[in-house]
Amino acid sequence: MAINGKIILFQLDDRQLALPLNCVKRLIRAVAITPCPTLHSGMAGVINVHGQIVPVMNIREHWGLPDREISSEDLMLIVTHANRDVVIVVDGIGSILDPGEYQRYDRSPDGAISADIIHAAGITAFVDDPETYFNEACRVGKDTAKPDMLHAPAGASG
C-alpha cells in the first residue's frame, strides 16, 4: 500500500497504528454492536450509521492483541475503501501527520515485517492496510448474506 499523504495515528492497547487519513470517513464514540454469528470470526457485528448497516471489524486479533469488551471510552473509525465502509474499534486517536512530519519504511521484501512502518516525533507505528478490513468483512460463511447486503439500508430486504 502506497502512503504518500496525511496519516492518522491510533492506539490499540500499547500499539501505535496508523491509517491513511483519506481512508477515514468519520470518527464516532463507541456504540452498541449487533452481533452477527453467521459472519466471519474477525467481525464483531454491525452498527447502523444513519440508516446504513456497516460491518464492525475486530482488528485486535490481527495485531496479536487479546479480545476485550468495548467500553464507553472506545472510539470507532469509519473507514472507507472502494465506496464501501467498515468500522474498526480503537482505544484512542493520536495525531494527524502531514507527509513531511513522518518517515515511511516499506514492509520487508522477505515478509519478516508485514506492514509499512512510520516514524515521527519518537513514535513508531505500523500502518494498517484498510483493504484487509474489506477482505475480512466480505468473508462470510456458507449460506449467509452476500457481502453487498452488509451495506443495504436499514429495513431493506435482500
Describe this entry's structure for a reader.
The chain is mainly beta. It has a single domain, classed as Beta Barrel (OB fold (Dihydrolipoamide Acetyltransferase, E2P)). It is 5% helix and 41% strand. The protein contains 1 helix and 11 strands; from the N terminus they run βββββββββββα. The strands form 2 sheets. Strands 8-1-2-11-10-9 form a 6-stranded mixed sheet, with no helix packed on it. A 5-stranded mixed sheet has the order 3-6-7-5-4, covered by helices on one side. The C terminus is likely disordered.
Question: Which descriptors would you attach to this protein?
Answer:
158 residues, 6-stranded mixed beta sheet, disordered C terminus, 1 helix, globular, OB fold (Dihydrolipoamide Acetyltransferase, E2P), mainly beta
Secondary-structure blueprint of this entry?
Layout: E1 7-12, E2 15-20, E3 24-29, E4 43-49, E5 52-57, E6 75-81, E7 84-90, E8 92-97, E9 103-105, E10 116-120, E11 123-127, H1 130-137
Parallel strand pairs: 2-11, 5-7
Antiparallel strand pairs: 1-2, 1-8, 3-6, 4-5, 6-7, 9-10, 10-11
